[in-house]
């Protein structure tokens, strides 16, 4: 006999089971879609190539940022999604290169180039730490939401248990 969603929501979840975030039915913890209500529980799995490309293009890799800035100053900052900084370094490098005509560019262009590489690297490290903190906060939120759902279920069970204890004491008094 198949159980209905109402029956599932009142029973305890076992190991490897979770509550649906929409209807509250007990489902497999690995389920992507609730079989009762059809609501997606989590994103579909990604391939390792997709996740590697996402990591590459989201910024925050200090080595890639430094290499891009070494190719042309400002590219590392653009990779870190800092448009203004990238444009400042690119224009600064072009101006410094143009000043080679008056001999100051021999010192200024390499200085701008090296500082652009350094800046791209350090800013990418900061961005990586920021992304890591954000992903940690997301995981904490998911955990606290699932714990809250578990606490509600435990509270309901405790209330049911107390009611059954009260009924027993009434029965004992009648005897």
TrEMBL record:
Which residue windows does the record flag with biased composition (Acidic residues)?
Answer: 149-175
Q: Which UniProt keywords apply?
A: Membrane, Transmembrane, Transmembrane helix
Sequence ranges of Basic and acidic residues compositional bias:
130-142
Chain residue ranges for the region called Disordered: 130-175
Give the residue spans that cross the bilayer. Answer: 63-80, 87-116
Q: What is this protein called?
A: Maltose:maltodextrin transport system permease
